[in-house]
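This is your field. Have a critical look at the following sequence-structure pair:

***
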Amino acid sequence: MKPDPRSDSSATPLWPHTVLTPMLAGAAVLAALESPHLVGLGLALFAGGLCVGSALLLARRVHRGERAVCELDLRLVQSQKLAAIGELSSGIAHEINNPLAIISQELDLVRDIAGEGEISAEDLAEARDSLREIGKQVERCRQITHKLLGFARKMEPVLQEEALDRVIEDMALLVEREAAGRGVAIVRDYAAELPLVRTDVPLLRQVVLNLLTNALQATPAGGTITLSTCRTEARACIVVADTGEGIAPENLAKVFHPFFTTKEPGKGTGLGLSLSHGIVERLGGSLTVASTPGHGATFTVSLPL
């Protein structure tokens, strides 16, 4: 399929608007000064028309470029979401596999009871318990997949009031299995009676997951990641602190730069923190980092109440 020339920024060159139009307009103005009144007026109108037409075309092109940048930004955010889920895929697989294993065991038990011929009241009660457990584990799987789909799907930005601890906990549960497998503990310290925050929940979830994933990669076995919330004046804060090696002072100013990473090649794109910083600013907040080498790093998301 051939690209639509209207959407191709290189289809229309800029030089007619930046070079030719000013030259023609200038020549028309100079000629108008040396011409009779009516001819001069016509030349002046011609020069003005050239400038207005060129300005409108350039404005349209700028608008088209801004729209393309916005679409690219949304695609980048979406791809980073999927990359974050991919990094946690093994933990998520275990989280789903456990209830499936329980379901399989309970089904085997029900089959054994059904194959005994006459079923006693005790066996019937046991079969009912098994079916109840199966239903519970199915609901557990449904909740896991619902959270995954809710995080991964493309959604239009919508502001809504939500409790910060609920947003954080949803992402913490996704990461916790992976953290346990690496010997890393996740500690919660949520502030009581924190007001609801009006924000874009899916975007905020992505920020929290990015920060948790980075903290998990930076924390060695036996370490901890602390998730906390607090209120400072008219702002609510989410704090993600780890006990890893920390960030070198010369890198602190670079951590939010696109494509900056200290990870080994192939283990990071350097886009997670940059995208998170942009998302938080879009939500009217700020994302900051503090670190002392050898004593971990602390990332703070501050949002308006």
